[in-house]
Design a protein that fits this description.
This protein is of the alpha/beta class and about 300 residues long. It has helices at about 5-10, 25-35, 50-60, 75-85, 100-110, 120-130, 150-160, 175-180, 190-195, 205-210, 235-245, 250-255, 260-265, 290-305, and strands spanning about 15, 40, 65-70, 90-95, 110-115, 135, 145, 165-170, 185-190, 220, 230. It starts with a helix and ends with a helix. The structure holds ligand TUI. Ligand TUI binds near residues 122, 143 and 276.
Length: about 300
């Protein structure tokens, strides 16, 4: 399937794997890239040297392009911005902020830049700063989210910019891909579906929670902090929302959630972990190799598009 995104990144399928902190490491990224998509290693809050090693390990597993996601709220974002250049990573995606201050150095180093945008305004700003594409991410996504939905955001961003738009949030099968293309996107970003990939190294408890989740089993915490975050409904995440209603302070919220991503992904700690995932988790029903996930999604997408 050829689109402006496959041309931009020199990939077979117009699909980016989501840059999920504590989840998206070298094995998953390499598997997605080997299957013809664009794998991504998540920088998260990791130190630069850990991520440099992750990049090297991914290179040992694939000769295909892969990217690094930089979470701009991370205290390590600045260091990771340099690692991208030193290691000549093919492309960078950014989240949770405006990457404007890094843009010039990345562009000068020949790195493709693809920021996540939750609004038309930021998409236009990113285009003016030299972004190669933008990811229009709806609030169906897992993790830190904006206010708009994929269905509303993607066509508005596609109308507002000339660079390729990648749809994210709520896409887990070929119908979602076909719909995204209809909305004006040149590709998709998929996160939640890859939580169930064989190559995804998260704790078995995390996979089980996602596999068991139904349509109503995700919840958004932390709205009052300005950084809303979607994940699996558990006793812990329900408790957080109740505590928010009861008027806890942002500091108390921070104390309750600190380290939650590691507790979920590494320890499988149901009592205290933040098991981030998208609202489409109800459609994730079996563990499969990443390559099969991609093949199945695009086979279905092509069938859908032929029927239009
Ligand atoms: O960043 C994500 N998803 C994430 S980051 C993360 S770690 C975290 N944990 C707890 C609280 C907050 C973060 C877990 N999941 N997705 C991309 C994304 N970017 N979603 C929304 C945004 C965004 C929001 C505002 C991007 C830009 C933006 O710009 C504001 C500005 O500065 O103009």
């Amino acid at each position: 399937m050829k689109t402006k995104l496959t041309e931009l990144l020199n990939i077979r399928y117009p699909l980016l794997q989501g840059g999920m902190a504590w989840v998206a490491e070298h094995k998953l990224a390499a598997a997605v890239s080997n299957a013809g998509g664009a794998g991504i290693i998540a920088g998260g809050n990791a130190p630069a040297e850990v991520i440099r090693e992750e990049i090297k390990k991914a290179r040992a597993l694939t000769d295909k392009p892969f990217g690094l996601n930089i979470m701009l709220m991370s205290p390590n974002a600045e260091e990771l911005a340099k690692v991208v250049i030193e290691e000549k990573v093919a492309f960078v995606t950014t989240g949770a902020g405006n990457p404007g201050k890094f843009m010039e150095q990345w562009k000068a180093a020949g790195i493709k830049v693809i920021p996540v945008v939750p609004s038309v305004a930021l998409a236009k700003r990113m285009e003016r700063s030299g972004a190669d594409a933008v990811i229009a991410e709806g609030m169906e996504s897992g993790g830190h989210i904006g206010e708009n939905t994929t269905m509303c955001l993607v066509p508005q961003v596609a109308d507002a910019v000339s660079i390729p738009v990648i749809a994210a949030g709520g896409i887990a099968d070929g119908r979602g891909i076909a719909a995204s293309l209809m909305l004006g996107a040149e590709g998709v970003q998929v996160g939640t579906m890859f939580l169930a990939a064989e190559e995804c190294q998260i704790h078995a408890n995390y996979k089980e929670l996602v596999l068991k989740a139904k349509d109503t089993d995700t919840i958004v915490t932390g709205r009052f902090t300005g950084h809303p975050c979607r994940g699996v409904k558990t006793k812990f995440s329900r408790g957080l929302v109740q505590a928010e209603k009861d008027g806890i302070s942002p500091e108390e919220f921070e104390n309750m959630t600190v380290g939650g991503l590691r507790k979920a992904a590494v320890d499988g700690n149901i009592e205290e972990g933040s098991f981030l995932c998208g609202a489409i988790a109800g459609m994730v029903n079996k563990i499969m190799p990443a390559g099969e996930i991609l093949e199945e999604m695009f086979k279905q997408a092509e069938k859908c598009l032929k029927g239009v």
